[in-house]
Amino acid sequence: MYRFSLARCTACVRELAPFCVTVWAAALVLPVGVAAAQVLIQPVVVELSARQRVASVAISLSSKAASPLRLQADVLSWTQDLNGRPVTEYTDDILVTPPLVEIRPGERQVFRLAFRGPRTSTDELAYRLKLEDISAEKDAAEVVPGMQISFRSNYDLPVLAAPVGTAAPLLRWKPCPGSETADVALPGQTHLKAPTPRATATCIRVLNDGTRRVKVNKLMLSGDGWQEMLTLKNGETVLVGTEREWRVPRSPGSIGTPSGVQIETAQGTTLKAEAGGF
Question: What's the confidence (pLDDT) of residue 147?
């Protein structure tokens, strides 16, 4: 007899940390990935051009699926906190149809997203399409002891609407309020004991004051005769109008107040951030 427990698996496509699927499993009979493998979603990042008001997302359920999939669709506005975590709230900007659907094994369903009004924003707009699995769990009378497994999956896709007009990058930076530097340990090290100089890190805040998101791969901090670099594994996206904070490790020889910040993007371009202004 199998022992039942509750397992959760979350997987994200890293380009925007954007597409996430959360799978809940009510048994350890099968790998959790089986549930995600039964659903095909195209595309996983929804992008609308400046003149486009309607987009679509198609979901196919494998013919091998054990039961139908019932989904409830909602669109949420999307910003970020200082650590890059998504901050969302329900919005009426976009209408999604159908709002509720049942997909049977072997079937394909198309969700259509349409702006309710004209596209006039000169900034890129960011949303999330939330598809929540509301499939009812099987009745206890139908459960075969030791053989029941039930998956509940929630899908979370980024929806990005291009700005009306020319997309222009503009980044600003400043020291984090209240504390410019703090003692940290370099990777693989513990704090060093005095009188040996300890490694430090400078906390900086970056604002995306441009009209389109920027994906940051590397962040270069410079001062009087020194430069330090922070490499962000897989890159991190900064949405329009949002602020992000990073701590850039500094060697003992990097003395003095930072005077400049440059950012290398995922496209390989280097942007010089302007000091202050926010």
Answer: 52
